[in-house]
Amino acid sequence: MTVDIADADDTGYLDVFVLSMPAFRWFKTNAPTESRRANHFCQVIGQRQMLVIGGRDPSHDSSSDGSFWPNDADPWTRGLNIFDMTGLKWTNAYNASAKKYEQPAIVKKYYTNQ
After folding, report:
1. Cβ density class 6-31: b for 16+ within 10 Å, e for less
2. Beta strands in the chain (DSSP E)
3. Which string of b and e fits 52-66 if b means at least 16 CB within 10 Å?
């Protein structure tokens, strides 16, 4: 079975956005992923990190080989990566002693100017 994803080659699949409450406003970060990813899951872990799990390359046609990635090689180790929600940066390691979540600078700036 082939899953068609609109504009699968679009660089928008690299973008990371933050949703701010209570304004319900999306902010685009300056921390894109290194490869396009679709159909993944996210879970907040610890105080300020988000675990991103699984997914697939949206431009890869899995009908030919049944894999989710070209050469069946997910660029993330074991299909996992971690995003620091305060620093707005990617890491491949969980930090159990990370300080408590604080609004990222782009969000603080928005609320300061309101």
Report:
1. eebeeeebeebebebeeeeeebebeb
2. 17-20, 25-28, 41-45, 49-53, 80-84, 89-91
3. beebbbbebeeeeee
Tens of pLDDT along 58-82?
887 777 777 788 777 888 889 999 9
Q: Which pTM does this prediction carry?
A: 0.83
Helix-strand-coil split of the chain, %, nearest 5: 15, 25, 60
Cα separation, 16 vs 66, whole angstroms: 27
Residue 56, beta-bridge partner list: 38
Residue 80 CA to residue 93 CA, distance in Å, equals: 10
**CA–CA distance, 7 with 58 (Å, rounded to integer):** 9
Structure tokens at 7: 């504009």
What H or E segment, with its residue span, contains residue 105?
helix 105-112
Q: How far apart are the first and last CA of the chain?
A: 48
Sign of CA dihedral 21, 25, 31, 34: positive
